[in-house]
Amino acid sequence: MSEKWKKVEDIKTPPGPVTFTMEHSQNGYRMNAICYSLKQEENRKKFREDYEQYMAEFGLSEFEKDLVRSRDWLKMIHYGVSPYLIGKMAQCFDLSFMDWGAFMRGEQAKDFMERNIPLLKNYNKDDR
Amino acid sequence: MSEKWKKVEDIKTPPGPVTFTMEHSQNGYRMNAICYSLKQEENRKKFREDYEQYMAEFGLSEFEKDLVRSRDWLKMIHYGVSPYLIGKMAQCFDLSFMDWGAFMRGEQAKDFMERNIPLLKNYNKDDR
Amino acid sequence: MANFVGGICTSHNGALMHGWDYQLREDPIWTPLFESYDPVRQWIIDKKVDVLFFVFNDHVSNFFFDCYPTFAIGIAEQYEHADEGSGPRDLAVPYGDVPFSRYMADYLIRDEFDLTVCQEMKLDHGIMGPTPYMLDQPWPVKFVPFCVNVIQHPIPSVKRCWKLGKSIRKAIEAYPEDINVAVVGTGGLSHELQGTNFGRIELDWDNEFMDKFEFEPESMLDWDVKEFMDRGGSESAETVMWFAMRGAMSKKVKRIHRNLYRGMLTGMAVLVFEDAE
Amino acid sequence: MANFVGGICTSHNGALMHGWDYQLREDPIWTPLFESYDPVRQWIIDKKVDVLFFVFNDHVSNFFFDCYPTFAIGIAEQYEHADEGSGPRDLAVPYGDVPFSRYMADYLIRDEFDLTVCQEMKLDHGIMGPTPYMLDQPWPVKFVPFCVNVIQHPIPSVKRCWKLGKSIRKAIEAYPEDINVAVVGTGGLSHELQGTNFGRIELDWDNEFMDKFEFEPESMLDWDVKEFMDRGGSESAETVMWFAMRGAMSKKVKRIHRNLYRGMLTGMAVLVFEDAE
Ligand SMILES: [Fe+3]
Ligand SMILES: [Fe+3]
Q1: SS3 for D180?
Q2: Terminus-to-terminus CA distance in chain B, angstroms?
Q3: pLDDT tens digits, residue range B28-82?
Q4: Residue of A nearest to D99 (CA)
Q5: pLDDT above 60: residue D9
Q6: Residue B3: its pLDDT value, please?
Q7: What residues are paired with C182 via a beta bridge?
Q8: Mutate which of D103, D116, D163 to disrupt the C interface (most C C-beta within 10 Å)?
Q9: Of A64, A127, B19, D40, which has the fewest beta carbons less than 10 angstroms from its beta carbon?
Q10: Using CA atoms, how far apart are residues B22 and B33, in angstroms rounded to an integer?
Q11: Closest residue in D to A26 (Cα–Cα)
Q12: What SS3 class is residue C248?
């Protein structure tokens, strides 16, 4: 998979859902690993302070570093990063789950939420 | 299980085989963990240099420390230490697999081996 | 002998963590969600439940892809709370029932389920999302966490989880101690987190699914997981875990409670069933 | 389509590591043991084997009891050698066949085997004991390691491993690439390492077992693991792994090779079968 892409721009992002398979998992392994390391507060602190340094210490490839630098969460999903792990990294960039999710839709979290908040309610047959 | 035993001497060692069950595994968990840590050379080095210090850093209970100090490998087996993990610790006391194994039989490795070496050969129907 | 008292299914998600940790019950948007769990809490009290057997999934909080189990059971004395980004949550310690969980692991392995047996497991919102809504603290029950891979495909099929449920039921009823056990399936319902349709929710399907799940679960046993993902979004694959609960129950069930709430990213449902037969 | 060429069973133990690492072929005590693997090496060459699918067990070298899988498959590009006390051994790097191992994991999970999927796995003497005897280096084949818990009881039953073998066989024959695959079961035969009978060996049972294993394996499918442990010592529980190999084969087999050697602590056997039907 990774060989298909020389540059982050090469990662295709067709519309629709992505199913995270073993193949994705293997392709995105090191990216997933760096995100997974952020489940520890001390690592989050280091990452927040200097993520370039953190990536270098983690031994990411230039391609992978560019993928982080790009903050292109949609490409990361297509590359093979698990959404739960993306969440851990996005948080260290002060982005909420909604922020990076709305990014994949091509919109701002604020707009997505404003549209959805009025819909938050029970939705049983009797409630309608 | 552990509550049955206040002192190492209390561990019963009836003759015959021991089957390592989940219950053994949970009972011997911390003992197994300290042995497992010895799969790394740096830890083996530390253990060899000062195993009292190593046990203290590992946070073993006094009972568990006594169990290590006792070098009573048969009691360890009955307590819930895996034979494969015992091997890793015994090695750090310069004891071979045969040494701690023969100990369980109540004999010296040398005697066990001398008795067995002449038997080492093919044992097919035609070979007899 | 142990007594199987019934089953619970519930969604789990980050919103449930948020709503609890910020104590949003009085916020009118959150009130119906909190209230939807009140009958569950009461039922657990009424039934004098001793142990909840949770069929849930981890969100790469405890397990990593170096070694990712399809089915993993916890047999520990107590569990830690996972750090999902803001430190471990301020919730009561979940205690296990060691002899019972060991017994369940033993029974299920002998019944040809290839379990990974865990003496340590950190629990994330897959269990701890909904639990504070349906249980007071300190927790009045013991926990058995049974973790299912629903993240790295292929995941276990609906039918495999259904069979698991049947085996769980048999196991509970053969347990020699006099305890009350309920089975909880977590996850779902509709949601999609990966790709351009992030935030997709399918509430009509969620209601239809809950009807089928109650009255004719067997009609879905041969469905590929993809069928659920097509209908309810990529992450509704989690629904397979509900089938472990349903498989543990009788063909006909008595519905004690059911609610569907439209969350920001998830169709959030909660169900309580007892055997009808 | 992939071609199933046959099966190998072999003991694994520390002695095999020792004999290889000290290059003891010329030592008259060791010569028959080394020679017993020569026909295996030749068979692997003759059959142009591309991949060996190893059903083996880890000896707490890679997995620990915090999280102990019943069945774990490796899908990695390459594997490291475990450090079993004297540093990693000086052996060639074992490479995996990534697409094939991924395919096998996928197939087996869909066929209701609840695998733990591993992207990293350190291999110990459970595989690397016998391999240098039966393969030249650098290894002329790719490795798929399939790890079975035979250490922390309950372990999977004979029947479960037999069914696993059947599924492995179906999977291999449905694989779209033109590769030659053999299945290897490791472990056994008689030995006992825990307790006062350390060193117990039962050679007559080992020969009887190999007869039954060849001609009437199904007569043992309902045996409890304990039956093997009673007959062959506590660690002969490992024999369940042989049944994955046997289950992958036809009812009648053609025996290519068979040998039993009396080791210091283990009845050490090696077998090669092809389908007879
Ligand atoms: Fe989830
Ligand atoms: Fe072994």
Answers
A1: strand
A2: 47
A3: 999 999 999 999 999 999 999 999 999 999 999 999 999 999 999 999 999 999 9
A4: A23
A5: yes
A6: 61
A7: C6, C52
A8: D116
A9: A127
A10: 15
A11: D119
A12: coil
Of C163, C122, C178, C177, the closest CA to residue C145 belongs to C122
The whole-angstrom separation of Cα C180 and Cα C172 is 9
- Assess D105–A contact: CB distance below 8 Å, yes or no: yes
- The gap from C-alpha B35 to its chain's centroid, in whole angstroms, comes to 9
DSSP D9-48: EE---HHHHHHHHTT-TTSTTTHHHHHTTHHHHHHHHHTT
Residue A33 contacts D where some CB pair is shorter than 8 Å: no
CA distance A84 to A62: 23
Rounded to the nearest angstrom, the distance between the alpha carbon of D238 and the centre of ligand 2 is 7
- Give the distance from residue D119's alpha carbon to the nearest chain A alpha carbon, in angstroms: 7
**Would you tell me how many other CB atoms lie within 10 Å of the CB of residue B115?**
11
- Residue B77 in contact with partner chain D when CB distance is under 8 A: yes
> Has this prediction a pTM greater than 0.95?
yes
- Kindly identify the ligand whose nearest atom is closest to the C-alpha of C14: 1
CB neighbourhood size of B42 (10 A): 8
Residue D60: pLDDT band by 50, 70, 90 thresholds?
Answer: very high
Cα B82–chain centre separation: 7
Question: Whole-angstrom Cα distance, residue D210 to residue D185?
Answer: 13
Q: ipTM of the predicted structure?
A: 0.97
Which tens digit of pLDDT belongs to each residue from A20-38? Answer: 999 999 999 999 999 999 9
> What size, in residues, is chain B?
128
User: C-alpha distances in angstroms, C225 versus A78, C156, D50, D162?
Assistant: 20, 9, 33, 27
* CATH topology classification for B20-127: Protocatechuate 4,5-dioxygenase; Chain A (1.10.700)
Confidence class of residue A3 from pLDDT cuts 50, 70 and 90?
A: low
Question: What is residue C277's predicted lDDT score, i.e. its pLDDT?
Answer: 73
Kindly list the domain boundaries of chain B, sorted by start residue. Answer: 20-127
Domains of chain D plus CATH, in order, are 3-275 (3.40.830.10)
Q: Which helix (H) or strand (E) holds C46?
A: helix C38-46
